[in-house]
Each structure stands twice: as structure tokens, then as C-alpha cells.
Write a structure and sequence with these properties.
The protein is globular and about 60 Å long. Helix 1 runs parallel beside helix 2 and helix 6 packs antiparallel against helix 8. The chain has helices at about 45-65, 100-105, 115-125, 130-135, 195-200, 200-210, 220-225, 230-255, 270-280, 305-310, and strands at about 1-10, 15-20, 30-40, 70-75, 80, 85, 110-115, 140-145, 150-155, 160-165, 260-265, 295. The longest helix is centred in the last third of the chain and has 25 residues, at about 230-255. The chain is α/β, with parallel strands linked by helices. It contains 10 helices and 12 strands. Bound molecules: zinc ion. Zinc ion binds near residues 187, 189, 191 and 196.
Length: about 300
């Protein structure tokens, strides 16, 4: 038998999973033999977080009698391959730390790291919705459109196994910080008008509030849009669709993926799959035609830990 060990290292919880399959066969979500989570206790600092990871792995070993050959990690930020340290983590005590080497040393096995958006893309491409719809895909783009906007690129290798394109600088798939609106809202990354500052949930809610002086959730804005009697809701949804179309057309022009999986709270909005794609057709370099499959994710909150295992 062959096992896949994945750890999703989050700011509040660390979750671990082991998948077990016959050697040489592809895992499915049914292959889970154990799943466990403990608190990260991130406020206690970097060394404590590492200790919590070791504790979780020891629990998984003790309960299954198995030992890992290698372990994959979903991380909140990015591993910078050149500096061999973490960056862009919202669990800030990880930033600047050589987490990959530290974990490999503490756990005594090879480690793979990828950020949670990349793990989402890999999980949906291997264990999620993509195999159901486009089993012979070459390229998949996984979109996270929620509180932030992120993404990950998964490519099928010559050996048939899908892998994440982390990139030279570890920023492969980070379309959320492409500039989408000239002189737009300032972004924490230092630029203005990043995609995340236009089509994330908070950005759309902010736009609605500017128009209406009322604070509403994305769900309420969508309800008011469908009710058809709120001009600010209609302008906000129109803005979302138009800028989604522009942003997605650049993804398609660069990667031309077989499938785009839309995750995150905003990614769940049905209109993106219809009218959003229609808007993208205006901008794509393909005579107004888009055959790319736009898919709703299947794995929900499990995508991080499954993607980590598949690394
Ligand atoms: Zn930005």
C-alpha cells in the first residue's frame, strides 16, 4: 500500500490527513483513513507552531501505526525558492523563516510546501470536480475569490501526474495582485487597483457601500440584485461581472486551461458561470469563443488538506 500524508497549516487549526491506496493507483476522497485537527496556537510563535505540527504527526503515527515517506503542507503564504524562506503569510510569525528545512529536520522526511490556493487547485484537479468533467486535462486554474483573490496552476506532467506550478519566485497563479483598475483602491501589497481590490467580497461590499451608504453582505447584495429594485446592487454586480470577465480573459489568454475551478465565497455566485463567462468572451483572444470549463469546486473545506497530501 501507498500512503499520502497532508497537513493544512492554518492560522487557527492544523489539520492532518492520510490517504491510503494500492501502490500505483490514483487516490480518491474515499481513501482517507484518518483525519485529525489540533489548534495552531499561533500566538505562541514560530517554534511553538512547529512543535504543534510534530505533535499532530505523532498523533497520526500513533493512531495508524504508519510512518510517512514524505509529507505535503498547505501553508498560508508562499515558500520563496530562492531565499528558502516563507513570505506573504498572514500568520506573520512564519515570514522570513526557513520552514521547509526546519520541518524536514524535525520530521526526518522530505517536505513539499505550497500555499493554500495552489493546494485548492491541486485537490480539485486530482480528487475534486475536474476528474469528473475533464479527466484528460492538461492545465487547470484554481481560483479563490473570497475575502482575498488568489489562484493556483496545475499542469499534468509527462508521467501523467498533475503537479503545481509554484514558479521561479513562488508566485505562480497569483492573479489577485495583477492590476485590474487604473488608480483603483490601495492594496496592502503596495499597489493600487489589484484584482483583489476590485472583485473580492470585501472590495465589492465596499463599492456597494460607496454607492448606497449602506453596509451589506455579499449575500444580501446578490439578493437585492435579483429582487431588481436596488440600483447600487445592480451596479455592484455589473462591476463584478465586467471585471471578472476582464481578469479571467487574461488567465485564458496566458494559460488557456482546460478548466477553471471557482472557489471561495464570491466564486459561488452562479452568475459568474453564465454572465461572467459571457463578459470574458468580449476580451479573450479567440473570436469571442470560450470552451474552457468553469466548474464549482467539490471538496469544500477539505481542499487544503487533500491538496497538501497530493503534493
Ligand atoms: Zn495587491
Amino acid at each position: 500500500m501507498q500512503t499520502y500524508w497532508g497537513i493544512d497549516l492554518g492560522g487557527t487549526k492544523i489539520e492532518g490527513v492520510i490517504l491510503q491506496v494500492e501502490r500505483g493507483t490514483a487516490p480518491t476522497p474515499d481513501a482517507v483513513i484518518i483525519r485529525k485537527r489540533i489548534d495552531t496556537e499561533a500566538h505562541n510563535g514560530y517554534d511553538h507552531i512547529l512543535n504543534q505540527v510534530v505533535r499532530l504527526i505523532d498523533l497520526l503515527k500513533a493512531e495508524t501505526g504508519l510512518t510517512p515517506e514524505r509529507i505535503g503542507f498547505a501553508t498560508p503564504g508562499t515558500f520563496d525558492p530562492a531565499r528558502q524562506t516563507m513570505k506573504n503569510c498572514n500568520t506573520t510569525s512564519l515570514n522570513g523563516k526557513p520552514m521547509k528545512q526546519d520541518l524536514a529536520r524535525l520530521l526526518g522526511v522530505p517536505i513539499e510546501l505550497a500555499n493554500d490556493a495552489n493546494c485548492f487547485a491541486l485537490a480539485e484537479a486530482t480528487l475534486g470536480i475536474v476528474p469528473d468533467v475533464v479527466p484528460d486535462f492538461q492545465t487547470v486554474f484554481g481560483v479563490i475569490m473570497g475575502t482575498g483573490v488568489g489562484g493556483g496552476v496545475v499542469v499534468r506532467g509527462r508521467d501523467g501526474a498533475p503537479f503545481v506550478l509554484n514558479g521561479l519566485q513562488g508566485i505562480g497563479g497569483e492573479w489577485g495582485h495583477n492590476i485590474l483598475e487604473e488608480n483603483g483602491h490601495p492594496c496592502y501589497c503596495g499597489k493600487r487597483g489589484c484584482t483583489e481590490q476590485v472583485i473580492s467580497g470585501p472590495a465589492l461590499q465596499r463599492y456597494y457601500q460607496q454607492l448606497s451608504n449602506e453596509q451589506r453582505t455579499m449575500k444580501e447584495i446578490m439578493e437585492r440584485y435579483h429582487a431588481g429594485n436596488d440600483l447600487a446592487a445592480s451596479q455592484t454586480v455589473n462591476r463584478m461581472l465586467e471585471y471578472f470577465g476582464r481578469a479571467v480573459s487574461t488567465l485564458i489568454n496566458v494559460l488557456d486551461p482546460d478548466a477553471i475551478v471557482l472557489g471561495g465565497g464570491v466564486g459561488n455566485v452562479d452568475l459568474l458561470y453564465t454572465e461572467g463567462v459571457e463578459r470574458a468572451k468580449k476580451y479573450v483572444f479567440n473570436s469571442g469563443e470560450i470552451r474552457t470549463a468553469f466548474l464549482k469546486p467539490k471538496l469544500g473545506d477539505s481542499a487544503g488538506v487533500f491538496g497538501a497530501a497530493m503534493l
